[in-house]
Amino acid sequence: MYVCVCNGVTDHDIRQAAASGCSGMTELTMRTGCGASCGSCVDTAIGLLDQEARARDATRALPFAHAA
Predict the structure, then answer these.
(1) Mind listing the pLDDT tens digit for each residue in 29-45?
(2) Confidence of residue 65 (pLDDT cuts 50, 70, 90)
(3) Which residue among 33, 36, 37, 62 has its CA within the 20 to 30 Å range from the CA of 27?
(4) Rounded to the nearest 10 degrees, how much is the dihedral formed by the CA atoms of 29, 31, 32, 33?
């Protein structure tokens, strides 16, 4: 789904940026342009970044995640 229509940034783009280490809106804007125009996408984009961070943290907490 498009999160930032102004700059054509999708939820996949945001998740991919998060997986590559992007952890904040400023960096996301620099990488993708998300939020650089009207700003109506910022809350959704931050939510996706937070969701990805929680998923990474949960994966790290699993006992088998360290065995690989």
Answers:
(1) 999 999 999 999 999 99
(2) low
(3) 62
(4) 40
